[in-house]
Design a protein that fits this description.
The protein has about 400 residues and is of the alpha/beta class. Helix content is about 45%, strand content about 20%. It has 16 helices and 16 strands. It has helices at about 30-40, 55-60, 75-85, 100-115, 130-155, 195-200, 205-225, 240, 245-260, 270-275, 280-290, 305-310, 320-325, 330-345, 360-370, 390-395, and strands at about 20-25, 45-50, 65-70, 70, 75, 90-95, 115-125, 160-170, 175-185, 190, 230-235, 265-270, 295-300, 315-320, 350-355, 375. Helix 1 crosses helix 5 (about 130-155) and helix 9 (about 245-260) packs parallel to helix 11 (about 280-290). It starts with 19 loop residues before the first strand and ends in an 11-residue tail after the last helix. The structure holds ligand C2E and calcium ion (CA) (2 copies). Ligand C2E binds near residues 192, 194, 322 and 376.
């Protein structure tokens, strides 16, 4: 039997790798030509002649490349460069002008001295081929630069964890949390994991992220335990993590150093990830279980799953994908699938967890179906560690917990 549903966020176009071109030029024909060529090269394009209002556009559109005309009515390109430098803009900058080549060079030098990422000039009239070549080279660089940024981000404390409580439906209490990583990019602001985890997986940074997440969550867990708050902490593992045969030793070492038992940690693996490379998976996953970690099969139902492997690999829980849970109250098929997965978990001796619970009616239905645990915005959004004790104790504005 195979279960298949559309995967949401992780297969959406990756904004971080986005190629966004802003053209600041008052010549509509020039703008039009560039727009056409750039769209053909896979760029999103905004053309503006508004040199006064461009800063606002830069903030909302977040261009990865800016082509700037040095001659603008009411202002000039040098003033624009000054404003971009004041905002510590990191886009690749290209200056264009029909002016003397020496003026272009002087503008490049000035931008460079102000710390801008000056990448080239486009003399007017421009050769469309030069533009295409330039844009193609920028597309490559964008990813590498972000990988460097991410490596810095890990080293310089730009990662943080949010924790989303998991409700034990039987007890009506929060007994666990899922740790969700965030990256505070110094220029781009908060970047969600769906955008940078795929990059980390491609560039081998994922091991460093996982080490950081497990270490941080284990220390946090020890701090909660010191306050008599016993919570199972769930961590997301990437498929790439499982490829490392030393993973069980690495993770148990982190737990030991933090002074917590691996049995208070659940490792969540996505279903597609969990089902690849069966023998190596089985080796690493079995040793993780031997060391005491619990294993959860995440986003269950959203990829292809072989139920035989599900039975063979040593999972402790099944996490039902939110694409079935969130709409289950108005979509009968989703409700049927959720019920089938809860029953499947029960029959295999696994715990069932429903994520994406966004209203009380869904929670009530899950409880009636015998679901073990629930997680979702209705119960709590992911929050900073310091808010967890109040949620666990039910203080303040704690959300509605269970059916009466
Ligand atoms: P996930 O493991 O499926 O995590 C659940 C995601 O759904 C989280 O998004 C969470 O904020 C969101 N969510 C929770 N409740 C609800 C709800 O009721 N409705 C809706 N619409 N969404 C809800 P987030 O934090 O953006 O994480 C996205 C994905 O990034 C995670 O999906 C996980 O696959 C990955 N991720 C997060 N942290 C890590 C990490 O430390 N390591 C790795 N490898 N992946 C991570
Ligand atoms: Ca997860
Ligand atoms: Ca999930």
């Amino acid at each position: 039997m195979m279960l298949l549903a559309e995967k949401k966020t992780s297969q959406m176009p990756n904004e971080l790798f986005g190629n966004r071109l802003l053209v600041i030029d008052d010549d509509p024909l020039f703008g039009e030509v560039i727009e056409k060529a750039a769209k053909g090269s896979g760029f999103e394009v905004v053309v503006t002649a508004d040199a006064a209002g461009f800063a606002k556009i830069v903030r909302s559109f977040r261009p990865t490349v800016i082509i700037l005309d040095l001659h603008m009515p009411g202002t000039d390109g040098i003033q624009v460069l000054r404003t971009l430098a004041a905002d510590r803009n990191r886009a690749k900058l290209v200056v264009s002008s029909g002016a003397d080549g020496r003026i272009l060079e002087a503008a490049m030098r000035l931008g460079h001295d102000r710390g801008l990422n000056m990448c080239g000039t486009l003399p007017k009239p421009m050769r469309i081929e030069s533009l295409r070549e330039m844009l193609a080279s920028f597309r490559q660089v964008s990813k590498e630069l972000f990988a460097i940024d991410l490596a810095d981000g890990i080293s310089y404390g730009q990662l943080s964890l949010k924790y989303q409580p998991k409700l034990d439906c039987g007890l009506g209490q929060f007994t666990g949390v899922e740790a969700l990583v965030r990256w505070h990019h110094p220029v781009e602001g908060m970047i969600p994991p769906d955008e940078f985890i795929p990059l980390a997986e491609e560039t081998d940074l994922i091991n460093r992220i996982t080490d950081w997440v497990v270490t941080t969550a284990a220390r946090q867990s020890a701090l909660w335990q010191a306050e008599n708050i016993d919570l199972d902490v769930a961590i997301n593992l990437s498929t790439k993590d499982i490829e490392d045969l030393d993973l069980p030793e690495r993770l148990s070492q982190h737990c030991q150093e933090a002074g917590i038992d691996p049995s208070s940690m659940t490792l969540e693996l996505t279903e597609t990830g969990a089902m690849r490379e069966a023998i190596q998976m089985a080796d690493v996953l079995t040793r993780l279980r031997l060391k005491g970690f619990r294993l959860s099969i995440d986003d269950f139902g959203s990829g292809y799953s072989s139920l035989v492997q599900l039975q063979r690999l040593p999972f402790s829980e099944i996490k039902i994908d939110q694409s079935f849970v969130t709409p289950m109250n108005w979509n009968g098929n989703c409700r049927t699938i959720v019920k089938a997965i809860i029953d499947l978990a029960k029959n295999l001796g696994l715990k069932s967890v429903a994520e994406g619970v966004e209203d009380q009616a869904t929670l009530d239905a899950l409880i009636a179906m015998g679901c073990d645990m629930a997680q979702g915005y209705h119960l709590s959004r992911p929050v900073a560690a310091e808010h967890i004790p109040a949620l666990v104790h039910g203080d303040g504005n704690a959300p509605v917990r269970t059916a009466a």
